[in-house]
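Progress against Task 2.4 (sequence-to-structure conversion) is shown through the following example record, which the project officer requested during the mid-term review.
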Amino acid sequence: MSSLTFILSVLLFQLLCTSHPCQRILTSAAAGGRWQLLQKSIGISAMHMQLLSNDRVVAFDRTDFGPSNLPLPKGKCRFDLNDTALKQDCTAHSIEYDVLSNKFRPLMVQTDVWCSSGAVTPNGDLVQTGGFNDGERKVRVFSPCSSCDWQESNNGLAARRWYSTNHILPDGRQIIVGGRKQFNYEFVPKNIAANTFDLPFLFETNDREVENNLYPFVFLNVDENLFVFANNRAILLDYVKNKVVKRYPTIPGGDPRSYPSTGSAVLLPLKNLKASAIQAEVLVCGGAPKGSYSQATQGEFIGALKTCARIIITDPNPKWVIETMPLARVMGDMILLPNGNVLLINGAGSGSAGWEFGRNPVLNPVLYRTDNKIGTRFETHTPTKIPRMYHSTAALLRDGRVLVGGSNPHTYYNFTSVLFPTELSLEAFCPPYLEAKFNNLRPTIVGPNSMSGISYGKTLTLEMEIRGKVEEKLVWITMVAPAFNTHSFSMNQRLLVLGNDKITALGESRYNIEVRTPRSGNLAPAGFYLLFVVHQDIPSMGIWVKLQ
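Structure tokens generated for the chain above:
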């Protein structure tokens, strides 16, 4: 990040502190939080979403929805004889949304990206893989620049990837796990391993004629192995040796949590990073009871699951702990907030994922307070007015808001005579920590003026400003990896609590805070992260840092 960019970001944040858009919205605060309509229409339905390090969000749906409501610029058209909807399409199916200006521009994808996956590489490029039809083995790259567009390579994958999951590895590669009829994994780029590797666990978790194991929940554990969850259970995978090193118990009750019985999951914040043994914990929430998908195809919509299951994956004898949510939810998203809490948002109260198979939209976000005692962790917040059903998305922004878009449970764009019309809008949920009453507690990062790169295992010093009384023991720094979000799962989502090693008062409400950066790529793979200072659960605006 250049010095000029940093200074402009600080000035913008100072303006937001006195006039944040979330603080000007006239909605009820009884339940907590605010909603902000950003765009009535971006022309496409945001089925996939990724925040990049230039504060722009890339979103896309699929090419075979038919023509979108956003024309491609300068008479451009896509010609694809293999497309199942349009052989010539002069409309966009992807956009770049500029968060700071609240503007967007059309992007052009060449082949079908429907139900694909992706991750951001260490250099900041979005690498997106797979899709449907002629897109199923494609690898596409989008670089964060003001004039960039999608670049595509033919047959960059060894197998067809549709409903797969990607994860960045400590060596910078991506692993791509599973997908429809793919009981294996592979890597991109292909510089080390070019072939696929069998993963029988995906076959074992495949329910006949329903699947219930697509878009598996994949997390990098602190020992470099991968936690892979599908259906109702999980394994720990040594992806280098292609060996399962641990099998976790089935979630009590045995109901499925993976697509199409779609729940969601997060790796909870990693803490105590200086310890010799670091604990890692996973939270899985929502989903649909056994048989929900089959019943939905017959017009019967079973109530969604109302439980979450939490497990310490590094424990030698791990066990699931069950918690009850205030609201049952299928097709919901789980977003890690800068202070380490989890936001549950979007989804339905009954049915399952799939065309027309969801009912009873869940309009209220729910906050999960990670460190509270069990039984006191959930808070229900202010509802939106816009149902976000199948094919909805959510992403954390640098200013602490959560961007929300999408919802299209139809095989094409459909705006009339249906229960839940195709949704083209973008809105933002403003968590309670953005309320004006917390401005005196809210930190502002004011230095250093350049954070172009930070190294592993080094001391990092930030200068911050807090206008109110500072509780030094309640100040800490967090690092958040922005995620690739689709189908209720945020791939590569990761939050590290760096803590607070030392605070030094500088006068005039300014302080230095020192922390130690993560010691290895097993804890935080190299790449771009958002760095926040948190004071009494109130986060600053984030700054971009590149861990290398």
